[in-house]
Amino acid sequence: MKKLLILGAGTGGTIMATRMRDDLPKDEWDITIVDQFKTHYYQPGFLFIPFGYYKASDVVKPKNNFIPVGVNMIFAGIDKIIGDENKVVLADGEVLKYDILIIATGTKISPEETPGLQGELWHKSIFDFYTIEGAVALSKFFKTWEGGDLVINIAEMPIKCPVAPLEFSFYADAFFIDRGIRDKVNITYVTPLDGAFTKPRASMMLGNLLEDKNIRLIPDFTLAEVDNENKKIIDYGGQEISFDCLVSIPVHSGDPMIDRSGLGDDLGFVPADKHSLQSTKFENIFVIGDAGNFPTSKAGSVVHFMSEILHENLICYIENRPFTASFDGHSNCYIETGHGKGALIDFNYDTEPLPGSFPFPGLGPFGLLKETRMNHYGKLLFRWIYWHILLKGKEMPIDTQMTMAGKKTD
Fold first, then answer.
1. CA neighbor of 349 nearest in space, from 134, 125, 199, 152
2. Which of 153, 276, 322, 407 gets the most CB atoms within 10 Å of its CB?
3. Of the candidates 105, 169, 129, the residue with the CA atom closest to the CA atom of residue 43
4. In terms of domains, do 127 and 243 share one?
5. What angle do CA 282, 287, 288 make, to 5 degrees?
6. How many domains does the chain have?
7. Which residues contact 107 (CB under 8 A, 6 or more apart)?
8. pTM given for the model
9. Range of the domain at 279
10. What is the pLDDT of residue 390?
């Protein structure tokens, strides 16, 4: 019996378990998925919790609900991968062997990497919203906060869902307008990038939205430390920004197990071919989603598109054929902009976000690089799609490869 082992039962691991169980003969292939946590989080929903639109219960389900029949589920910590021996050692010492390994261990915030970030003000007036604990703590804080300097700061790139900090800023503007205290809240968006986003056209559009909403943009700020006593963030050049409430998007890193295995880069992400998704170190190891060092967004849509490519290439590998699928870096992100509106961007490795209509040329119903109510509805609908379609590996009406149909290049 051959063995396919999947590390991580988040979005990527769960989708791949389903896709591969459907295709591999049960009498020839044993499929096992390992994860230390039993709870599956709908992470895009964390954004809504601080503003009271979602509760924690809206974004939480048991992982067992999504593991298909015929796949072995092991809840355990992972010590390390020993790639040249084709085995994984669990935290309790148990050894799992594999013929093919999929690494889907994702990424996590590492606030401990920034001096002072997890100091005495952590989850008191310094918060994250990339964890359920941080989002819930911030929700409680906002219920009684009477205003002051609200600073949203990205410590360092890359991060999960690069548009989420912008969405938070837009939502904060709308939230405090609705509460009648927007004139008492100064919102500042602080980023290590040279603009609001990584891609020029999107950066201009999103930067204009920040300006329209009276949100101050401070670019080229790479966080060095947080001064809890004086409530300041300080960059490596000595620039200081004061806050009354700091919403931090901390440094992100890969699973510590990756470093222990000698498979990671400086941030603990696994080097892999950006098109085939195959490890650059071991031919029978493949990587999906946030765990890899791919030069694309760490976002749910990317994982879904990658899963189709990886599924096809795994079959090629098993059948000893050249890879027939190539991932183009496709990313598709809805961006909440507040007051029942949203924007949408669609891009890949080579093509930046462009204006136009999506997914149908001239018809939409979604508008690219513009604010519309339909884009907001698309964002809200995605939660249902995530639980019922995406996680179960079902087909979605969006091309895996980015298409230029409906996009305007002039």
1. 199
2. 153
3. 129
4. yes
5. 170
6. 3
7. 160, 252, 253, 254, 255, 269, 290, 291, 298
8. 0.95
9. 2-109+253-318
10. 87
